Amino acid sequence: MNSSLRRLRNKYILTASTIVFAVILLMIFILNLLMRITYRSEENMLESIIGQAAVTHVNQPNTEYFSLSEAAKTDNGDYIIPRNVRDIANITVYGHIESKNPAIWYSAGGGLMFEADTGGASPEMVYKDYTFNRDTSNVSIDFTDYNNIKCGINTLSIDESQIVSDYFLVSVVWWKNSSNVPFGTDEDISLDIDSIEIHYKESRTISSSSQPLVSHITFSDIFDKNIPEALNTTGAFYLITDSQNQLISVNDGNLMSPVSNGDARDYAARALGSDRETGKIKKDGTVYSYTVRETDGLKVIIFVNDSFTDTANGNLLRISLLVGGMIWLILTVLIVIVSGFVIKPVAENMERQKQFISNASHELKTPITVISATIDIISAKKGSDRWTDCIKEQVKKMQTLVTELLDLSKLLEARSERSGFKLCDISGTITQSLLYFESLFFESGKTLRQDIEENIIFSCDENKISRLVGILMDNALKYSDAASTIDFSLHRERDGIIIRCSNLCSDFEGNDTSRLFDRFYRSDNDRIHEQEGFGLGLSIGQAIAELHGGTIKAEVHDKVITFTVTLPQGRAVKMNEDSTAK
After folding, report:
1. Which of 31, 185, 513, 576 has the fewest CB atoms within 10 Å, counting from its CB?
2. By the 8 A CB rule, do 52 and 206 touch?
3. How far apart are alpha carbons 279 and 44 in whole angstroms?
4. Reported pTM
């Protein structure tokens, strides 16, 4: 396959594979975009469900859980809980009791205290007691009735209207007994109260003015145990802060483990510190998207676990890129295979065209010779006139055309044959070829400026290199601007041996460069059409360059057209100063 067909096939492969690559890349982009939109839609739905429920129930949770480690204390060490017992149905106290010495039984307890008007001069502290027995981890105290209220050692009954405080106290441990010390205080017994859980009667209101404790609730408390199925598939929770951005409540949502107060404060600070209503937060390797909503002076910050969607999106992108790459490679291989069949008709057509040029040139050569001889005889017998001169001129043009066609045909046939090649001093060959044009340039009022690197040895057909130089010079002489300078250079560069010919051509259209090497191509420019020629010179120059394993290209910049011939470096050597061309 010759270089023209090879370039055409490579261009087809490159174009087809690029289109396939672009289509696959577009499909991957659309697929990943749709998946991200789907995941985001699901997140928006979850945030909407949680947000609506949270805003609706922000002041009416059924249950609150408090860790006593953050509760304020009285001087006696009792924990202060800022909740009104009138709203409370029952309180569950969580703790841990143990004995250092074995005992058949042991217990300890204290009280849940609040102020009530018992008929005295001032309100008194009353209480309901709690008792932890051996192996007990929590105790529930009923607040639906006030018939068994204790005041000191007395038992009395009160009603809701007599309760005057908006807080209650969880006392320190008052007493500890065991089978070893049944009627005293057993110092081997220890009881630690960890937390409490408050279950409310109906609605109640969070006071945003004083909240020293952070309450914990769950989705069951706001969805009345009818948790939407969508919330069971993605980790989510929300926080509530007051107008001063102080954390007052945590809804642990459907997380495997509760959110600690420290982590909750960190989440809230980062979300509210960004001054944006939506965003993302990464903590301990988990990514959460958040949304901030305000209601009744409180802020509800909803968090939805994005780690799964981020991981899923990342995996989808990696898998789609891998599969897309494999498909692209497979299709590229198929394109390479198919390209041979696609290019086959073009190759056959070019072969027929080459054969036609060769046959037509040979067939035309004989009648042209006969016509030329005949017109010479007529001129000798009858003398020359304008008719015979016109015939001679056209015969001369036809002879030039046939000669060029024959040269082109021979070059096309000889592309794979380099039997006439030998090492020659290409620097000297080009310098000698340029001598012929110096007088022509002088007569036309133009200047030829040469920059030829000396002593470059190259394996080539010396006559064809001279012909290539002649084509470039003839082209520059014909189409350069009047009184302009033509630059011709020869140098060894990284890409190989570079021959350049540049000239100013103001009338040339830059978009014609891709067609300059087409056979019989002539620019539509009127001035260029005035010059003689058949549009075969540059085609022959291209064939000569390709015969030597090189390339030729044309570039236009600021009305200066430059032809660059690149010959392979591997077949050139630099002569030593004492070497001579062979």
Report:
1. 576
2. no
3. 12
4. 0.49
- What's the start-to-end Cα distance of the chain, in Å? 32
- Of 360 and 132, the one with more pLDDT: 132
Write the CA distances from 486 to 49, 187, 538, integer angstroms. Answer: 79, 113, 17
Parallel, antiparallel or unpaired: strands 72-73 and 236-241 = unpaired
Out of 323-332, 461-470, 519-528, which region has the weakest mean confidence (pLDDT)? 519-528
Q: Which has the closest alpha carbon to 197: 324, 64, 67?
A: 64
Residue 75: φ, ψ to 5° = -65, -25
pLDDT category at 349 given cuts 50, 70, 90 is confident
Res 574 pLDDT > 60 = no
CB burial class (10 A; 0-12, 13-18, 19+) of residue 136? middle
Structure tokens at 39: 């995941």
Cα 419 from Cα 459, distance rounded (Å): 11
Q: Which residue in 451, 431, 459 sits closest to 493, CA to CA?
A: 451
Q: How many residues are present in the chain?
A: 582
* Predicted confidence (pLDDT) per residue in 145-160, tens digit: 888 899 988 899 998 8
Distance, in Å, from the CA atom of 259 to the CA atom of 218, rounded to the nearest integer, reads: 11
Q: For tokens 């090492």, what's the residue? A: 423
Q: What is the CA radius of gyration of the chain?
A: 50
Contact 261, 247 (CB under 8 A): yes
Q: Which amino acid is located at 510 in the chain?
A: G
266's tokens: 């960190």
Instruction: Give the CA angle between residues 337, 413, 493 to the nearest 5°.
Output: 80
> Given CA atoms 130, 131, 132, 138 in this order, what sign does their dihedral have?
negative
Strands 215-217 and 247-251: parallel
* 533 has a pLDDT exceeding 70: no
Give the integer Cα–Cα distance in Å for 404 and 540. Answer: 8
Tokens 């591997």 identify what position? 570
Three-state secondary structure readout of 124-167: EEEEEEEEEECCCCEEEEECCCCCCEEECCEEECCCHHHECCCC
Beta strands in 506-571 (DSSP E): 551-557, 560-567
> Which amino acid would we find at residue 360?
A
Beta bridge partners of 411: none
Residue 290 has pLDDT above 60, yes or no: yes
Q: Map residue 341 onto helix, strand or coil.
A: helix
Residue 14 tokens read as: 């490159």
